[in-house]
């Protein structure tokens, strides 16, 4: 029995020696990959940051040269850019009649929406050239759309912008994109 205990103690000592040797073998000098990561990566990051700062703070050149190249407002520049709709053209307002529409409040009741709308148009005599049939079609399109709205749809600037863009789309479908450039909501009241 004593022999068995000696053998068990010897085996335990051998295991301890192996673990110490294993630990010693595990501690190697850092490899080239670790050096590349810990030295090279920060160098690359600093270089990219320097390039970004240079591009950000260097400016875009001389402003006078850019203005001369672009030409005056509304003119087509020598490079073909510039001009186009809405750039420097005179727009004239045309007020429509006030719209009064009953809209659902979402709880089974109704509210009254009163809205004043103005078209911006490049034609100074737009009101004179607008026919009665076009006026009726515009009113029909606007009322059909506005009746489907709820007061929540008109809440906030984003809601009003969506309504304004939809009214512009409907007006341009009837009159043409060249006759109406924008729709302004000059008065809005929900009672």
Please sum up the structure shown:
The chain has helices at residues 2-26, 32-57, 63-70, 126-129, 132-147, 156-175, and strands at residues 92-95, 99-104, 110-121, 182-190.
CATH-level-2 architecture of the largest domain? 2-Layer Sandwich
Strand content: 15-25%
Q: Radius of gyration, Cα only, in angstroms? A: 38 Å
DSSP E strands, number? 4
Helix segment tally = 6
Structural description of this entry:
The protein is an alpha+beta fold and 191 residues long. The protein has 2 domains: 2-57; 92-190, Band 7 domain (Tetrahydropterin Synthase, Chain A). It has helices at residues 2-26, 32-57, 63-70, 126-129, 132-147, 156-175, and strands at 92-95, 99-104, 110-121, 182-190. Strands 1, 2, 3 and 4 form a 4-stranded antiparallel beta sheet that branches. The longest helix has 26 residues, at 32-57. It is found in: Cell inner membrane; Cell membrane. Residues 1-23 have a biased composition (Acidic residues). Keywords: Cell inner membrane, Cell membrane, Cell projection, Chemotaxis, Cilium, Flagellar rotation, Flagellum, Membrane, Transmembrane, Transmembrane helix. Controls the rotational direction of flagella during chemotaxis.
